[in-house]
Amino acid sequence: MSAGESGYSSEHLLAAGFARRCLRWAKDPAAPGVLERAAFLASFATTDGHVCTDLAELAEDFPQHGPDLLRTLLLGSGVVGTPGGEPRPLVLDDEGRLYLYRYFDYERRLASALQRLARGRDSLTPPSEAVREQLNALFPPASGGPDWQKLAAALALLGRLTVISGGPGTGKTTTVVNLLACLLVQNPDCRIALAAPTGKAAARMLDALRERAAHLPRSLREKLPAAASTVHRLLGVIPGSGNFRHHAGNPLAVDVLVVDEASMLDLGLATRLVEAVPVDGRLILLGDKDQLAAVEAGAVFAELSADPRLSPPVIERLAALTQTDPAAIVTAAPVRSTPLEDCVVWFSRNYRFRSDSGIGRLAARVNSGEADAVIAELRAGGESGVIWQEDGAAAPGAGLVETLLAGYADYLDVMRSGQAAPAAVFAAYNRFRILCAVRESPRGVEAINRLIAREFRRRLGLGADERAEWYPGRPVMVLRNDYVLKLFNGDTGIVLADPSGELRVHFPDAGGGFRAIPPARLPEHETAFALTVHKSQGSEFDEVALLLPDRVSPVLTRELVYTGITRARRAVSLVGAAPVLAEAIRRRTRRHSGLIARLEEIG
């Protein structure tokens, strides 16, 4: 019987199967119902993005047992271990967090690797006078308070681990370019690597870096990395094994590793990445703590960036290096206290959106959870670059489809010409994107892609037959890595006809050109007129239409709305029912984790 036929999801069935195996492994199933339920909860939690579950959740199912008795029953089963004990399928820590062993092991290893880098500050050679001069030349004196970009670059010069959190347009790339220039002054042979979780994010990172580096002297500009890779490619995936060539025992051959869009890193990948940074290397993580967390388990970047406090000794060193009054270096209050003091900087000033930008103001209000104010302002209208279409219908009507298709007007014009080169086609396609909160609903990615594709084909004179899978102008997103073709999850291509009329799917390559692949050779893929907000991370578009479902859903959160809005550079259209949007803004993503506890255990 399939998962669909059983009425349960595949994740539910896998968790139930694991729970039954735990019962068979138990040496003393004094309370088999307790063990089976605990194992199910720990396994199922990871499918919802949590690293662990809480004993309190188990206690709700067994109110006749107190927490102490539940702990005794679980630890006595022989299946549940403790952090300092022998490995067991499940681990229960002192605070009542219950893990699958694999995720507890990831947390412990990640905490150890992070602390190794955080404590490596004292082994670094202090920045030379030439570096100090370069830093102050690249970041001239600023008015109106301390220059946090300059302070972040200085912090990275003084340490081996730096976490920079800021929304789009807050200057993260500019900061990194200037930092790398300073590091190259310090060490002209410095080996620098750039990476991001997806191919699109890596390509955008490289493009932005090249653009921002135009002001640097040619001697420094030529030493900047010529490529950026996905984290998987950087670590060297061993096909079919799930392992990487680079790890703690065979670290990366780099002096500095910069990772963009780090909020997309799940716990497992973050662990492998940080462990692969050499003992004498530097790691710089860039991201947005308020953005959506990884699809898989963990919210690593949000946890690491929670505490931007700086200690007095480090403030003094920063002040001396940056020619800043130490009294002016006042950090924001932390989201929560963590052991990563002196490693985190928050950027809040936005250089992309003017003070009167509707997108900037909307994103800030969403991020603050001001649901009623957001709805009132959207209904009032008048915000520059923001359009609100109040539409709570279960399925998109003809008017909404027309509105969504209008966003692709330039793309349709380019495809009608029949003469455009791939670069022009991609430029037109990337000006606009439809973002959906969910996949499987009348207003989800799958349904919207079918609607837009049918109308797109009709307007190009290609017919509206949904069985016509391949046609010029069809955008596709790769869903599964193919190491032979070097296509990776999230890579986007466009179908175009070659001079002989044969259809090929064109993908951007690392050198700024394109490579054409026969459609039959593609790995698993889907049409990409519309994307989920999750899939849009690492991308930006001139205009975005954010389409909400007709009813409240567990996936609708403040972080999802904020992420969708901030994919737009110039204009965003929000389509949905006001009560659904308001509820999404009020709901924050909560992921159970013990990473901070593991860091505190190390001290």
How is this structure best described in words?
The protein is an alpha/beta fold and 603 residues long. The chain has 3 domains: 6-107, Arc Repressor Mutant, subunit A (Orthogonal Bundle), CATH 1.10.10.1020; 131-352, Rossmann fold (3-Layer(aba) Sandwich), CATH 3.40.50.300; 358-586, 3-Layer(aba) Sandwich (Rossmann fold). 40% of the residues lie in helices and 16% in strands. The protein has a 6-stranded parallel beta sheet with strand order 7-6-10-11-5-12. It has a 5-stranded parallel beta sheet with strand order 13-22-21-14-20. The protein has a 5-stranded antiparallel beta sheet with strand order 18-17-16-15-19. Strand 17 (503-508) and strand 18 form a beta hairpin. The chain is globular, with a radius of gyration of 25 Å. Mean pLDDT is 87; it is low at 1-5.
- For this structure, what is the CATH class of the largest domain? Alpha Beta
CATH homologous superfamily label of the largest domain: P-loop containing nucleotide triphosphate hydrolases
Radius of gyration: 25 Å
Strand content: 15-25%
Q: Structural class of the helices, strands and pairings?
A: alpha/beta
Number of helices: 25
Query: What is the typical, i.e. mean, pLDDT?
Result: 87
Give the domain tally. 3
* Main β-sheet, spatial strand arrangement: 7-6-10-11-5-12
Share of residues in helices? 40-55%
Give the overall silhouette: globular
CATH topology term of the largest domain:
Rossmann fold
Termini separation comes to 50 Å
Number of strands: 22
The CATH architecture of the largest domain comes to 3-Layer(aba) Sandwich
Q: Give the biggest sheet.
A: 6 strands, parallel
Q: Uncertain regions: pLDDT < 50 for 5+ in a row? A: 1-5
